[in-house]
Amino acid sequence: MKWISEFAKAFMGLFQSGAKTFIGWMSSIVPVVLLLLVLMNSIIAFVGEERMNRFARLASRNVLTRYLLLPFLSAFMLGNPMAFSMARFLPEFYKPSYYAAQAQFCHTSNGVFPHINPAELFVWMGIAQGIDKLGLNNMDLAIRYMLVGIVMNFIGGWVTDFTTAYVCRTTGVQLSKEVSVEEN
């Protein structure tokens, strides 16, 4: 009977822990993401959706701007997870590759720009603490990690282009390589 009681207590503890995490999110990351969403939509409204579509059209034509410039600007200006929302301006074919490059960039730039991915800053700080104990400069490591990350993020995005093309070819699905402009 004691085992059943302990199991029930532990089971309820999972939900209590989840509730504490949820309340923590409601007082930390959810308002930040909501305000970033409002900011992004305000910028889009100010700049104009047609100009944003034109910028995306230009950025999507070139593999370097698509997987180096756009992910960097998105991550730096919007942070994780809002940086992923910039994919809405890209053609359908390039969205998986943008996601691949963006997801990696949000991690590899955390040592230099901690505001990009504050929820996972503890990973970088654990590594930096070890570097500090060795008497080394952790900013040197952060810059190297970011530079290697930028190259690898680009390669990851580009390789995903080939993967997307393969999946489209084998499944018969056609994804557009042109920006779709919705009429309001």
Features:
184 residues, mainly alpha, 2 domains, PTS_IID_sorb
Describe the protein's architecture and organization:
This protein is mainly alpha-helical and 184 residues long. It folds into 2 domains: 1-47, no CATH class; 49-178, no CATH class. It has 7 helices and no strands. Helix 3 (49-61) crosses helix 4. The chain is globular and about 65 Å long. The mean pLDDT is 83.
Quick overview:
With 184 residues, the chain is mainly α.
Layout of helices and strands, plus pairs?
Elements: H1 2-26, H2 29-47, H3 49-61, H4 63-78, H5 95-108, H6 121-133, H7 138-171
Helix pairs in contact: 3-4, 4-5, 4-7, 5-7
Report the average pLDDT across residues: 83
Secondary structure class reads mainly alpha
Q: Quick one: how many beta strands?
A: 0
Amount of beta strand: under 5%
- The tally of domains stands at 2
